[in-house]
Input
Amino acid sequence: MMGYALCTVMLLMVPLTVMASRYFPDRKAFLLSPLSVFVFAWAASAAFYLTGPDFLRASTVAALLVFYFAFVLASGYVLVTFSRRLRIKAIEPPPQRPEFLLVLLLLQGLALVASAAHLYYAFLHVGVNATLTEVRGALATQAISVPIFVRLLGQLRYVNYFAPLAVFAMVKMGYTRKRTLALSLLLACLYPVCYLERSGIMRIVLLGAFAYVYFSVNSFGKLAKLAGILGAIMIPLVVVIPVLRGQAEGADAYNYVVGAWSGFDNFVSGSGMGAVAVLEDQNVYVKQQGYEAGEAPLFLQSATELYRICNAISACSVRLSNFFEYVYTPVYTNIYTLARTYYQDFGPVGAPIGTALFAAFLAFIYVVCVSGGGVFHVYVAAYIAYICAMSVLSDNFLMRDIVFTGIFIYFLAWFFGSRSFWFGVVRRKASSSSQPNKGITRVSRPG
Output
């Protein structure tokens, strides 16, 4: 019953979080914060868990409880400390050049061409009569040979992350129509569809939902209604994509969500005599007696990107895998929640410290972004919300998702002269000899 008790605590945190929002000057800014999104996401996951058997063991419950409150308390401390600054700032006007939107949509179209090309080469690799499961496997493991220009073109996928948000802002300010936004969202969603990738579509849906709340929702009732709509979209999405892949056993929302709890339970408390499988030549850290601190290289999960760079320049030789281990009981899965990252990298004693530092970092960046007044700030804030929402499944934080997106936005701002639209306006103290800046027109926040 300990697992059910943990889930009850997580569900009770929802009304407490909603009540806490009343004490912040900008209630919406708090409800979109890492703390709130984290609490809501884990409550939804806990609700799924309560519909099935209670299989979590005592050591797993303790690890999850420590992880959960380390995140909540650390992020909450930062939000309270900077509560006066936690106010959503209006977006500056977009560039006054008609070709701006066309270029943005064109870049999204080229990204779609690249994804279709990857799908074509995947079929060539596995055979035209192969199942979609085999095709997806080839795409996921990057075992296909693709021309270098196609790989370079594929980097335009980062445009899909921020383009719908930029178009949404322009729609709210009356610079374009909703059908342009629909086209941008469609192009963004079709890219991961070509990869048969659930998480990619979920990313676009969550980023888009964040933008909608950020720009349009100013009442708690509308926010609750949106949560219901998101559930109606996400649950079928979880079911449909595995069916398209030919994975009927994975077409179950309960298995997908609660599977992450099952994975973490095997990781912390041990797999016992249960089988553990891998898809590639990789180290296995899911052991019969549970994971012991120090078995994996230092910071293997939280610094994977650095290890990849280190391997690429031959400065080190660390075996990295694209997938976690598969466990079969009590739920077949290879996802382990965000908690595995910090439990594996810092051990049971250091895990709450690592989690708290990460949560405080996300909360501080979020505070900076909501008061930034640029589309890039909105994207980073939305990306943080996406990370927190997906924490119930896995660790989705990748620094390149911010860096590469920022590079694309920087060049768009440079080419179209729209720095204030993307990065906001930096206010400087006026001197007696300075002239007022008449090139920026403030736009009130949409109601």
In short: Confidence is low (pLDDT under 50) at residues 245-251, 429-447. Residues 90-424+437-447 form one domain.
